[in-house]
Specification:
The protein is α+β, with helices and mostly antiparallel strands. It is 20% helix and 32% strand. It has a single domain (29-170), classed as Immunoglobulin-like.
Length: 171
């Protein structure tokens, strides 16, 4: 009887081990997403001059993630007087005549706009051709200088990447 008991207990133990170790892959949690999205902005380029009263801020580029994108926020901020404006001021102080058209706008209000939020899905997003996130020509009366365009991209797991493009608004 002890041999039957031994084989019975062994069979029960083997069956328990077999059923607990042969779970499906669906039971295994997916590895946590810790990879940040990738931001590749090709326009505007760093240090580009965007002419007030003539040009829009056009954005070109792609956003990618290894799993799934969630959101992109685009914001703009005035970050200071540009090197070009400083040189013009210096030239003016030294008696060099500066065209009033080139110097116009330097004391006016900075260009400002509410951030633009784009809802994303999938692994890749390309901005549409001639994408203007702020919708229109930059007014000629804005303060000339250095501006920073900030792209903040998050994926579905909450990973975040930030890219800043510094450019100039002037004439």
């Amino acid at each position: 009887m002890s041999i039957l008991k031994f084989f019975g207990i062994s069979a029960l133990w083997a069956a328990t081990l077999l059923f607990t170790s042969c779970g499906s892959d669906k039971d295994d949690p997916e590895p946590k997403d810790t990879t940040k999205p990738v931001i590749n902005i090709t326009r505007p380029q760093s240090n580009a001059l965007i002419v007030a009263g003539v040009n829009n801020i056009i954005v070109e580029g792609t956003l990618t993630d290894d799993r799934e994108l969630d959101e992109c926020t685009i914001s703009i901020a005035y970050t200071g007087i540009s090197t070009r404006a400083i040189l013009m001021e210096d030239m003016s102080l030294k008696g060099v005549a500066i065209s009033s058209d080139l110097y116009a706008g330097i004391d006016d209000e900075p260009y400002a706009h509410d951030p633009v939020v784009i809802t994303l899905s999938g692994k890749s997003y390309s901005f549409p051709p001639n994408y203007d996130p702020f919708g229109g020509t930059i007014p000629a009366s804005v303060k000339f200088g250095e501006y920073t365009l900030t792209f903040t991209v998050t994926d579905k797991a909450g990973n975040e990447e930030v890219k800043k493009v510094v450019f100039e608004i002037g004439q």
